[in-house]
Design goal:
This protein has three domains: 120 residues, no CATH class; 116 residues, Immunoglobulins (Immunoglobulin-like); 91 residues, Sandwich (Immunoglobulin-like), CATH 2.60.40. Helices cover 30% and strands 35% of the residues. It has a five-stranded antiparallel beta sheet, with no helix packed on it. Strands 1-2-7-4 form a four-stranded antiparallel beta sheet, with no helix packed on it. Strands 9-10-11-14 form a four-stranded antiparallel beta sheet, with no helix packed on it. It is elongated.
């Protein structure tokens, strides 16, 4: 009976998890992932009643579920399906049903009196006949279970607000983090999978700009997909991506200049002001400059390490709408990293960092970026 119920619940929770959201989906998904796989596996491993008692069986069900589901995900990572919602759920369902079938077969090979079975009859407590000590222990146990259940309900119905962020990634055409092009002849193009996932708590429109060695005029980017509006040859906008929604499409990149070891970048811009964004660049042989930017508060914590050189004369500029709005200069000498606070008007801001007269950091105001290093030999359209 318990195996039929486990298999039936697994099949039922699959469509329910797809059709529900919020707290209901969390409850169903937790049972589907954290209990049923382990229970089915333990049932297959221990068909005899005397093998493990009921409490041990329940504990093993949770423990083995936590071990089995990540292994299923690891296996999926090496397939063409990848670790995505539908492949994971179907794989866990197949595992549950298979283990239930194995458990049913193994139980059929042992005498009925020795088989493990679940009784759905609850024992009747004779409260008057119980000793005082047993009453206290039973009362504490009931109160603990009630408190634990109430805590779980509270966490599900009133969850803490999670971190807000955006995912931005490129994949090969196989949908995996492999198969990236390392050479594109001038005049030719290459295809990639570009993806954005919005976890910002609100719908947002994202602007994506392509650059080759820092120049948007040197890389053409084209895409055909939902929500997309082209701006120019290197820029397009993904319009009104809903919260917790994911956009993914095949893009085509075409270099317009030749060269070796060129940096092909895709920059992601959003209307949300950047907070706790880290910008970093090298300074000399072993030194660096790092900015931790908070555009909402209009400040950036600047850390400068001189490296092997004894002295650096640094300058930081803040630009808003092509206008210089703040500037700071300081000298860093030997003696370890130094930290400075740089303030500017709260707004979308681009930063430039100079080491003497050399521009070492040219921030464009992007929130995220991905890049590839490619060689672009002269092709059929050269000359």
């Amino acid at each position: 009976m318990d195996l039929v119920l486990t298999a039936a619940l697994s099949c039922l929770m699959l469509p329910l998890a797809w059709m529900t959201e919020g707290a209901v989906r969390i409850v169903l998904g937790s049972a589907f992932v954290l209990f049923l796989p382990g229970y089915a596996l333990v049932a297959a491993l221990y068909p005899l009643r005397r093998s493990v008692d009921t409490i041990e069986r329940l504990a093993l069900s949770f423990g083995t579920s936590i071990a089995v589901v990540p292994l299923i995900g690891l296996g999926l990572n090496y397939t063409t399906w990848g670790i995505r919602l539908t492949p994971v759920m179907l794989s866990v369902l197949a595992f549950n049903v298979t283990m239930c079938a194995v458990a049913a077969y193994r139980r059929s090979k042992v005498p009925r009196t020795d088989r493990f079975s679940v009784s759905f009859r609850f024992p009747r407590l004779d409260w008057q006949a119980m000793a005082l000590k047993d009453r206290v222990i039973t009362g504490v146990l009931i109160a603990s279970i009630a408190f634990a259940a109430g805590s779980i309900i509270f966490v599900i119905t009133a969850p803490r607000e999670g971190e807000r962020f955006t995912e931005f990634y490129i994949l090969g055409l196989g949908g995996m983090a492999t198969g990236y092009p390392d050479e594109i002849a001038l005049g030719d193009s290459a295809r990639l999978v570009l993806g954005i996932a919005n976890h910002e708590g609100q719908p947002l429109s994202y602007t994506i700009e392509g650059r080759l060695d820092g120049s948007p005029d040197a890389l053409a980017v084209s895409v055909v997909g939902p929500l997309v509006e082209a701006v120019d040859g290197s820029t397009f906008v993904v319009q009104d991506l809903a919260d917790e929604a994911e956009w993914e499409s095949i893009i085509e990149v075409r270099p317009l200049v030749a060269g070796d070891g060129l940096k092909a970048e895709l920059l992601l811009f959003s209307p949300r002001l950047r907070t706790d964004t880290h910008l970093r660049t090298s300074l000399g042989e072993a030194g660096y400059v790092q900015l931790v930017v908070d555009e909402q508060d209009g400040k950036a914590n600047v850390t400068v390490s001189p490296g092997d050189q004894l002295r650096h004369e640094c300058r930081i500029e803040a630009w808003q709408d092509a206008e210089l709005v703040a500037i700071a200069s300081f000298v860093v000498e030997e003696g370890g990293a130094r930290t400075h606070e740089f303030t500017f008007p709260p707004a979308e801001t681009a930063f430039r960092v100079y080491d003497g007269d050399s521009l070492v950091l040219n921030d464009c105001g992007e929130e995220l970026s991905v890049h590839l290093w490619i060689d672009v030999p002269q092709g059929s359209q050269a000359g």
